[in-house]
Amino acid sequence: MLSEDDKWFAVGLRFMGDGFNPREIEKLLELRPSSILVAGETWTGKSGRVYGPATRNVWCFNVEAPDAVGFEEKIQLLLDVIRPNRDALCRLTATANLEAEVFCGFGSGNGQGGDTISAASLGELASLGLGLTLDLYPPDIDERPLDHQQGEQDVPSDGHKPSIHASSADTAAPADAH
User: From CA 29, how far away is CA 23, in angstroms rounded?
Assistant: First the structure.
């Protein structure tokens, strides 16, 4: 459980859908994934639970930085890594039946806090064809959506993005709300 003043931020690049082969993205972007799921295959989560089979392909790259580093700095670290392959990334994000996004997760021990993402960063993400997903965790949840140590992410067996969580249960939005 997080202490009252603790906060964590997680940022990752994620591709999901049927219109791509997740095993080919590493070559295309010259970027080793933190995790992949292949439609029709099972996978094992951090806790050892077996999930699946996956209903769609998923490719994830997690930004490696301390948990307390905010969204802006982690997004800049991600952009520094993907800029050299901008053309390949833009071709990939234009692929039909493919969701391309930067995933931002946040949690705090007291349920409060936030961060700012600059207009420049948002503009650059948009120019690359990348959406932005925010996943907010209530204070009683200490699980990070992107596991930096193991490079593995538990993804629901239906293959959909995790729900957006707010700091109180009565304001939580369903997973398909975004």
Answer: 11
The domains of the chain are located at 7-177
Which amino acid, one-letter code, is at 68? A
Q: Note the pLDDT of residue 65.
A: 95
Per-residue buried b or exposed e for 115-145, using 16+ beta carbons within 10 Å of the residue's own CB: eebeeebeebbeebbbebbebbbebeeeebb
Q: The dihedral of CA 129, 66, 157, 45: what is its sign?
A: positive
Tokens matching residue 143: 């699980």
User: Which of the 8 DSSP states describes residue 14?
Assistant: E
CA distance 134 to 69: 16
- The predicted-structure confidence for 25-38, as pLDDT tens digits, reads as follows 999 999 999 999 99
Which one, of 40, 68, 67, lies nearest residue 54 by Cα? 40
